[in-house]
Amino acid sequence: MKLTPEEIARIISGELEQPKGAPAAGKIIITGAAGLKEASGTDVSYFSDSRFTGDLHKTKAGAVIISSGIPGFEKIKESIGVPLIKVKNALLSFTLILEILEKERSVRQEGVHKTAIVSKTAKLGSGVSVGAHCVVEENAFIGGGSVIFPQVYVGQNVKIGKNSKIYPQVVIRENVSIGENTIIHSGSVLGSDGFGYIKNGTLHKKIPQIGRIEVGDNVEIGANVAIDRATTGATVIGSGTKIDNLVHIAHNVRIGKNCLILGQVAVAGSSVLGDNVTLAGQSGVTDHANVGANVTVAGKSGVIGDIPDGQVVSGFPARPHRENMKTQAILHRLPDIIKSLKEKNK
User: Fold this and answer.
1) Which CATH class name applies to 5-105?
2) Whole-number mean pLDDT of the chain?
3) CATH for 111-322, among 3.90.1150.10, 3.50.30.30, 2.60.40.1400, 2.160.10.10?
4) Catalytic residue list contains 113
5) Which end of the chain is more exposed for a tag (fewer CB within 10 A), N or C?
6) What pTM did the predictor assign?
7) Paired strand residues for 237
8) With 0-12 CB in 10 A as exposed, 13-18 as middle and 19+ as buried, what is 243?
9) Which residue ranges does the chain devote to CATH 2.160.10.10?
10) Could you say which of 57, 113, 251, 332 is catalytic?
11) Continuous H helices in the chain
């Protein structure tokens, strides 16, 4: 990337501001991006929180993208020695620049590496890249523009949509469907057997897991995530959902659109999550629970039953957050309450 602040302003639909004493924007060439503290004269940075005004004054960035809603913008502009690009949402605009840099750095050669094994019945769209030591099994389909990094396993009848990225050492077992523009990070396994057993005397007899997985468009799945295939039917991950590292999604779970599933979360079998649900880190959902749309489950909470739409819940068992906070406050007071009661009974 080689852009002037003026060109960046056009790309992000921003308004270029030239503070007095700042270098002429037309003579600055931006080749990278960094935080305010780390940025050099060839980097663009961003400023969206007045708590970091001190860093803004000290920055050596070549240009700074700034949110228009920052209090005292005119005063800030007078005391800053770098060109400013005013936008509605600085972080969102900064993200657009990061996308340009990422695309430039992740260009991969199209075609199939000589060490990859691709079945004759598999179909690859135009511009697909299949890296070294990959295996693509029978009747698999990989959509145009997708990148399969080295050491990925793509099982029988797998479908991967256009412009998706599958990073090294991902395993996608048979009968898994993945949408367009989806990212799966290293070490994740899609299609492992669901944890299904039935007691047969003193033995645990395995229930065959013959179902599938359906992953929507624009999904991102972090590193070392395990998503189990359904016993029958499908385990579903809705479009736009983002899953952090070290998450387990059990068999027959159905997750809605645009959900956020944070690190070390586990969702037990046959549970249903509505659209726009957030499960914060280390929270868990029991089997066969129904979590409504727009629900937020706080970190380390345990959902053991159904939760209506729009709730914010916390604790174990998870209950409305304000109710849980009141309970916790009373619990913290218990030693004093008990001490007071003992004194009264003397």
Assistant:
1) alpha beta
2) 94
3) 2.160.10.10
4) no
5) C
6) 0.89
7) 215, 255
8) buried
9) 111-322
10) 251
11) 5-11, 53-58, 73-78, 90-105, 321-344
